């Protein structure tokens, strides 16, 4: 009920500033769309989205969808970085600017949990329940639907500035602008491909691989004549061999649980999540106490304050909870982290480096000590040189901060 509740998050002025910033391109960052007489169209030209071209599309009744607004807006970046930590899943966003009296998209359902925040103007929404059990919490989004495929909406409402509308995966929705006002809203999304089924997709192949390596029962040959009595064509046959075959399969599947590397599969999910994550937004004190505020600079004909002087008495801690994850992989022990991620989703490859196994205890010590500071000398490495070397590496990657700035300026 408060029209100013989302003030400062994102606005049409921010939309315009993004266009004028020169790094917005049709298709990659901006979609121009329309929906009329049951037909949804995309009108993207190629190249940079110049303000004159974009606003001409808008003036002629087209909707504008800005993809990845966190790449252009520090406030959206900060907002999503908080939500991704709370959800334990990627939090993304799109912003939608729609002219009065128009609709930009056909009815459809999505594969994400959607939170619609009305920023400016107002928009008329209709939301419909999943039509079948198969559409409840779907893995994938739908194609564009027609009005004839919809029943009666379970919710019909007009959002005004300051309002929020939530609908889960699988709920069909469509929004159109009333004749007397434009609409600017941001849709925040989360929990894409974050179900038990998605977890099992990682876990079961790994469990089967371990079973094949450790249990001869999984390596024994199939019966020579199983093709004669198994298969759809034989599914109605009464045959003791069929019963024995099915029981054997069920037994092997049940036994597979004993080989399931559940924690390792969770780590693989976490690794993917860290790749999805936005980099953390730093407070002024975090910046001053991290490599991002380190005062190395060019002065008087040469670089100065370049050396990172960490000692056994330097107090350190993780920059932020959840920014790093240890994973044991075939190639070795890897540390994945988010501090060097891009604000554009998956623009960069996953950020990680290999650790010597003797550093594992020290990384676990740092992870478990957060948010408390510890002295470098207390890291459980064998030598002081190793302790300082590890702390310096993590500081340079932005993973560690110090209790006090290393160089007073």
TrEMBL record:
SUPFAM superfamilies: Clavaminate synthase-like (SSF51197). GO terms for cellular component: nucleolus. The keyword Manganese does not apply. Its cofactor is Fe(2+). Its main location: nucleus. Residues 62-207 form the JmjC domain. Its EC number is 1.14.11.-. Oxygenase that can act as both a histone lysine demethylase and a ribosomal histidine hydroxylase. This is Bifunctional lysine-specific demethylase and histidyl-hydroxylase. It comes from Ptilonorhynchus violaceus.
